[in-house]
Amino acid sequence: MLLERLIRFFTSLRLTVVLLVLSLLLVFAGTLGEVHLGLYKAQTEFFRSFFIYWHPGNGSGKIPVFPGGYLLGLALLVNLVAAHVSRFNLTRDKIGLWIIHAGLILLILGQLATDMFAVESQMHLREGQMKNYSESDRMDELAVSDITDPKLETVVAIPERLLAKKGDIRNDQLPFIVRVKEFYPNSVLTTNAAPGYARVNATAGLGPTLWWEQVPRETAMDRRDVPSALIEIVTPQDSAGTWLASEWLEQPQTFTVNGHTYSFQLRPERYYLPFSLRLLRFHHDVYQGTDIPKNFSSQLLLNRPDTGERRQVLIYMNNPLRYDGRTFYQASFDQDNEGTVLQVVKNPGWLTPYLACILIATGMVVQFLSHLVPFLRRRRS
Amino acid sequence: MNKIIPWVVAAVFAAWVLSTLHEPPEPGFHTRDFGRLPALLNGRVQPLDSVARSTLLQIRERQSVGDLGATAWLMETMMNPDAADKLNVFRIDNFELLNMLQLPEAQKYYSFSQIQPHLDDLTREAQRANDVEDANRTAFQRQLLKLDNALDIYQRLKLSLCPPGTTDFAGQLAAYEQAIPAGVAAAQAQEAKKTFDQAALNRLLDFLSSYNDLAKYAYPLMVPPPTDAKSRADWQNVGQNLMSVVHGNDFSPAVKDYAAMVTAYNQNQPAAFNQALDDYRQWLGQWFAPEARHGIQEFFFNDFAPFYKAMIIYVTAFLLAVIALLTFALMPKTSEVLRQSAFWLVVLGGIIHTFGLVFRMWLEGRPPVTNLYSSAIFIGWGCVILGIILERVFAVGLGSAVASFAGFVTLIIAHNLSMDGDTMEMLRAVLDTNFWLATHVVVVTLGYASTFMAGLLGVTYVLLGLFTPLLKYKSGNLELGKVLAKMTYGIVCFAALFSFTGTVLGGIWADQSWGRFWGWDPKENGALIIVLWNAAILHARWGGMIRERGLMNMVIFGNIVTSWSWFGVNMLGIGLHSYGFMAAAFWWLLAFVLSQISLIGLGMLPTGMWRSFRSSAQSGTSDPSVSKTAPKTHPA
Cystine design at B264: which of A290, B58, B128, B272 (Cβ 3.0–4.6 Å)? Predict the structure, then answer.
C-alpha cells in the first residue's frame, strides 16, 4: 500500500511539473545570486548543493530553505527513470519520448560527471616564457621545497583548504610541523602603518616589516582572492620562526632546519603537465580606427620530452588546442599585449552533451513527425 | 466584389511601398549622392548617410533635424560648423542636467551654441560621473555621460573634413602645397643648425598644427587607403593624409575633391559642388568600386527603410484583423473581407520584413542575429511567419492579429534599440563565427519568438474570453476557444523544440570554444529557464493538470520568462553575454512583467465572469452559426 503510493508519487507527472518549476525558480534565484556572490560562489551555493541554506543572524546555524541543484537533478532523474520503468510501454508513438528522455538522462549524468571530475585552471605566459604546469584560478597552495641539493628539488604542496583550518600540518617528508597561526582567504599588505591594517606578528623573513588586513572575498569575475597566512615552523627541538606567507610576495623565503635549506611560498595551486608550452607570439588585432577586438591569438611551441613531440600550435578565439585530454583556449591577455592567459580544462565527460544532444534532437524530430504527419493527413482528407 | 477588396487593399499598400523606390532628380546640392560616399567608421566601410543617421540617433534620437535630412545635417556640420552649431541637435530630458547647463526647460532639443558656455562644467562633472561604477550611477549622471559622449562625437565630426573656420578649403590646400618646399627646407636647415627662413617654417607649422587636430580627433575616416596600400582597411582621416604630405606622400584625390566640395558648399555653388562630387565618385569607381558599391547599397537600405514600412503595414493589418474578429458574428461577410485583407497585408508586411532582414544579412555578410537590435528584428520575423502559418491552418483571423501585433511591437523595440548607434557594428572576437551565429543564435532566437507567440495567443484568449462572447463561436466545427488552444499547444511544442535545441547548441559552442559545456552564465540560465518552463507547460498538459485556461495562463507567464531572458539578464551586467546596463529598458521590462501578471490574474477569474462562458451557459446552443462564411477547419 505504502509502496504503491510511493511508486505513484515518484512516477507522477505532477512531480515532474513541480520539479521543473522548482528548477526554474532555482536557476532564477541562482542568476540573481551571481550578481551578489560572484559566479563561483553562487554556483556552489545554488547549483552544486543539495539544499540552499539560510543563515539566520551571524550564528553558525543554517536552515535549509530550498532544494539545491543536486537534489533537483537527482529527483528529476529518479522521476524520469521511475516513470519509464513503471508506466511507459515502448509503443510506436512513444519512441520519440523514449529517445528524448534517454538523452536527458545522459545529459544530466554527464553534467554531474563534469561537475565532479572536471578541473579548470589557467596558464599565464609572457612572450618567450615556458611552463609545464597550469595554475588554479581560485585555490592556492603553500609550496615547501627542500632546495639543499641544487639538482634535486622536493616539493610538498599544502592545499589552501588545509591552511584555512589552521592548526598543525605534518608531512612525512618534512622534519618539522607547519603551524598555521592565522589565515586570511583574501588580504592586502602594506609596508607602513595605515588605518585598518595590523602589524604582521612574524619573527622572521619579510613579515616583521609589513602590515596586513583581511578583506572580504572577491565576487567580481575578473579578480581573484589573494590569501595570506602566518605560519610557524616548529621543529622537534624548538621553532624556526614565525613567517608571513602571502601570494602578494612574489619571491620564496628560505629557512634552515637540520642543515637542510627549505624555501616556501604561497602560490596558486599548480597542475603539472607531461609537456610544456612556450609562448612565441601573442597577437591582439583590432578593427581599423576602433578598439573593438577583432582577434586574439597565441602562437605556442609544444614540447613533449617523453615522446619527442615538438611542434608549433596556434590558439585563437573559437579555436582551442585539444591535447592530452585537456582543452587550452584563449581566455585573456596582458595589458601590454605581450602575455597571454590560456584557460585549461580537463573534463573526462566532455563528450556526453554531444551524444545527449544527438539523442534528444532525434527524439524530438521523431515525436514531432509522428504527430504532425497524421494531423496533416487528417486535414487533407 | 468581396473577393477583390482584400487584393485591392494589399495592392494599394504595395504600390505605396514601390512608389518610394522612385528617386526624383535633386535640384541644388546633390545631397543624396554625397550620402552614398563610403567612409570607415566603427571598423567598417559605410556610406556617409549611415554615419549621419547613427550619429543623429545617438545625440538626437531622431534620424533628421526637423526638415533637414541626416546627410544634409552632416554636410553642414562638417563643412560649415559655425552654422551647424546653431541647430538644435542635442536632446536633453533631465531637469537636473538642464539646470546645471542653465538651459530653458521648455525646449526638447538644444544647440551646441547654447551648451558651449558651460562646456567646462559639463566636462568636469562628466569625469566625476565616469569614476562611479556603472550600476551605481544616478539618472542625472547617466544622462550627463550620454550628453558628454554626444558632444564628443559632435565635436569630432566637426573636425573630420576641414579645420575650424575654413571656408575656401581648396584655396587653403593650394597655399599649403606651396608652403611645403620652403617650409621643409627651413626645417631641415634648422635641424642641421644652419641659417633658415623662420617665416617659411612658421607658415608651414601653422598649417600642420591645425591639420594635426584633424588627424587626432576626426570621427569617420574619410580617405580611402592609398591605391598601393597593403590592406584595403587602411583608411585614413583627412588630417592624417594632409600631415603625410610633408613626408613626401601625395595628396589623396579624395582630399582634393572633398576640399573642392567644401569650398563650393560655402560659396553656395551647387554646380561646382556636384562636379567635385562626380569627380570623386568617378575616382572611387576606378579604385574602390566595392566600397563605393557598398555605400550605394547601404544608402538604398537606409533610404528604403523596410522595417519602418513593414511596421506601418502591420499596424493596419492588426486593426483590420481586430475589427474582423469583433464583427465575426454580427457581419460575417464584412468580417471575412476584413480578415482576408488583414491576412494579405500581413503577408505583404512579412515580405518587406523578410526583404529587410535578408538585405541586412547580405550587407553584413552575417547570419540574421548579431546583436540585441537584430534579435528584435528576427524575433518579430519569426512571430510573423508563425502567425501566417497559423492563419493558413486555422483561417479565423487570430493568426493575422497575433502576427501583425508581434511584428509591430518587435519593430518598435528594434527602433528603440537602434538609438545606441551603428546597428551593423563589427563583432567582437568571441562572436566572430558565422557557423555558431547561424545555428545556436538563430535557433535560440526562434525559441524566444515561438514562446512569445504562444504567450500572445494566451493573452488573446484571456481578452477575448473575458470581454467578448467569441470563444464559444464556431468556426467550422470548432469553437474559437478550442482553435486557440490547439494553436497554442502546437506553438508551445515548437517553442520547447527550438529553445532546447538552441540552448544545447550554445553549450556545444561553449565547449568548442572554451572547453566548458555549461558555465551558469546568466544568459545561459535565461535560456534554460525558457526550456524548463516550456517543458513544465507540456508535462502539466499531458498529465491533465491544466486545461484550456491553465494552458493560457502558463503561456502568458512564458512571456515574463522570455522577456527576462531576452532583456532582463542583460541588465545584470555580468557574464560573457551582457550588452551593458540599460536603465530605461528596465522600467519597460518591469511594466511589461506587471501587465502580464495582471493578465494572468484576469485569466484566473472564475468562468462565471467570462463573457464567452457566461453567454454560452445562459443561452445554451444559441451560438450564431458562421460556418457558411468561415472556411472549413479540420474536424476535432
Answer: B272
Q: DSSP of B364-421, one letter per residue? A: HTS-S-SSHHHHHHHHHHHHHHHHHHHHHHS-SSHHHHHHHHHHHHHHHHHHHHGGGS
B155 near A CB under 8 A: no
A379 CA: distance to closest CA in chain B (Å): 5
Contacts of B430 in chain A (CB under 8 A): 317-318
Report how far residue A38's alpha carbon sits from residue A265's, in angstroms, rounded to the nearest whole number. 27
pLDDT exceeds 50 at position B634: no
Where do we find the cell 612574489?
Answer: A250
B357 neighbors B368 (Cβ within 8 angstroms): yes
Identify the helix (H) or strand (E) that includes residue B95: helix B95-100
Residue B553 has pLDDT above 60, yes or no: yes
B221 touches chain A (CB under 8 A): yes
**How would you label B295-321 residue by residue, b for 16+ Cβ within 10 Å and e otherwise?**
bbebbbbbbbebbebbbbbbbbbbebb
Grid cell listed for B630? 468561415
Q: How many CA atoms lie less than 13 Å away from B184 in the CB half-sphere?
A: 12
Q: Which of B587, B589, B583 is nearest to B526 (CA)?
A: B589
* All structural domains of chain B with their residue ranges: 1-15+293-426, 39-158, 169-287, 440-604
Asked if B42 lies within 8 A of A290 by C-beta distance, the reply is yes
Q: Which helix (H) or strand (E) holds A156?
A: strand A154-159
Facing B539 at nearest CB: one of A17, A120, A375: A17
The residues spanned by each domain of chain A are 2-118+351-380, 121-131+272-345, 136-270
Specify the pLDDT at position B582: 52
Determine whether the interchain pair A320/B40 forms a contact, defined as Cβ–Cβ distance below 8 Å: no
Q: Calculate how close chain B gets to A289, using CA atoms only, in Å.
A: 6
Rounded to 5°, the CA angle B282-B70-B422 comes to 90
Residue B520 touches partner A, C-beta closer than 8 Å? yes
Phi and psi at residue A78, to the nearest 5°: -60, -45
B429 contact residues in A (CB cutoff 8 A): 293-296, 317
Stretch A261-279: mean pLDDT: 91
Distance between CA atoms of A98 and A360, rounded to whole angstroms? Answer: 9
Q: Which residues of B touch A343 (CB under 8 A)?
A: 514-515
For B536, which residue in chain A has the nearest alpha carbon?
A: A17
Q: What percent of chain B is helix, strand and coil (3-state, nearest 5)? A: 70, 5, 25
Whether the Cβ atoms of residue B440 and residue B381 lie closer than 8 Å to each other = no
Q: Write out chain B residues lying below 8 Å of A329, CB-based.
A: 513-515
In this predicted structure, what is the pLDDT of residue B629?
36
Given this model, what pLDDT does residue B91 score? 92
Query: How much is the pTM?
Result: 0.84
Q: How far is CA A177 from CA A109, A206, A266, in A?
A: 42, 20, 16
Of residues B221, B533, B545, nearest to A289 (C-beta): B221
Report the residue from B500, B508, B564 with minimal CB separation from A354. B508
